C-alpha cells in the first residue's frame, strides 16, 4: 500500500506542477534543438558547390588584399628610410656651395690668406648653425667632471693642482648630442 500512495502522490504532483502544464500545452518547446519539421540535409543549402566557390573566392580576395597591403607598407618603409635625411641634406646644400666658392678663392687669391681664413670661418659657422637647427649640440668638456655617459677617456695625466683631479684637462675630439642623445662621445684627457 505504501507503494501505491507514492505512485498516487507523484501523479498528483505532476498534475499540479505548472512547468509540466506549460510543456503539455506547448510540446515544441520541449525540443529546443530539434526542428519541428524534418529537413533533409541536402536541401538545407541549395547548392553546396556554389557556396564553397563563393567562400573560396572571398578568401582569395581577402588574402590578395592583405598581401598587397603588406607589400605596399614594406615599400613605404623602404622609401621612408631612404629619404629620411632629405631635409638635412637639402639644408646643407648652401654650405656645400660655399665650400666650392672657397676652393675657387684659394686659386684666385695671392694675399697671405687672412681673407681666406675669414671665409672658411664664415662657412664653418654657417654649417654649424644649420646642424644646430637640426638638433645638434656640441658638448662642453674642458673643466667639467669626467662622466662616462658623455666622455671617453683616452688617457690620464697628473693633475697640475688638486682641483683638476677627476676633471677633463684636454679635449682630443669633440663630442656631440643630437636632440639630447649622445651621437659621438667626446675623447678627453682626464686629470688624476
Write the layout of secondary structure elements.
Layout: H1 2-16, H2 18-25, H3 41-44, H4 48-82, H5 86-108, H6 114-133, E1 136-138, E2 151-157, E3 168-173, E4 176-178, E5 181-184, E6 186-191
Parallel strand pairs: 2-6
Antiparallel strand pairs: 1-4, 3-6, 4-5
Helix pairs in contact: 5-6
Descriptive notes:
The chain is of the alpha+beta class. It has a domain at 137-192: Head domain of nucleotide exchange factor GrpE (Nucleotide Exchange Factor Grpe, Chain A, domain 2, Roll), CATH 2.30.22. The protein is built from six helices and six strands. It has helices spanning 2-16, 18-25, 41-44, 48-82, 86-108, 114-133; strands spanning 136-138, 151-157, 168-173, 176-178, 181-184, 186-191. Strands 1-4-5 form a three-stranded antiparallel β-sheet. A three-stranded mixed β-sheet has the order 2-6-3, with no helix packed on it. Strand 4 and strand 5 (181-184) form a beta hairpin. The mean pLDDT is 77.
Amino acid at each position: 500500500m505504501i507503494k501505491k500512495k507514492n505512485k498516487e502522490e507523484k501523479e498528483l504532483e505532476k498534475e499540479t506542477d505548472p512547468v509540466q502544464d506549460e510543456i503539455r500545452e506547448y510540446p515544441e518547446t520541449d525540443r529546443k534543438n530539434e526542428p519541428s519539421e524534418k529537413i533533409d540535409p541536402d536541401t538545407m543549402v541549395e547548392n553546396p558547390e556554389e557556396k564553397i566557390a563563393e567562400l573560396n573566392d572571398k578568401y582569395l580576395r581577402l588574402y590578395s588584399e592583405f598581401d598587397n597591403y603588406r607589400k605596399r607598407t614594406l615599400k613605404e618603409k623602404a622609401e621612408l628610410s631612404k629619404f629620411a635625411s632629405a631635409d638635412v641634406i637639402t639644408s646643407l646644400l648652401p654650405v656645400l656651395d660655399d665650400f666650392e666658392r672657397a676652393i675657387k678663392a684659394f686659386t684666385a687669391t695671392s694675399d697671405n690668406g687672412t681673407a681666406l681664413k675669414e671665409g672658411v670661418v664664415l662657412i664653418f659657422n654657417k654649417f654649424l648653425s644649420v646642424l644646430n637647427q637640426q638638433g645638434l649640440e656640441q658638448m662642453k668638456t674642458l673643466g667639467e667632471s669626467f662622466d662616462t655617459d658623455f666622455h671617453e677617456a683616452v688617457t690620464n695625466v697628473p693633475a697640475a693642482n688638486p682641483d683638476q683631479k677627476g676633471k677633463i684637462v684636454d679635449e682630443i675630439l669633440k663630442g656631440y648630442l643630437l636632440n639630447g642623445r649622445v651621437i659621438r662621445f667626446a675623447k678627453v684627457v682626464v686629470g688624476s
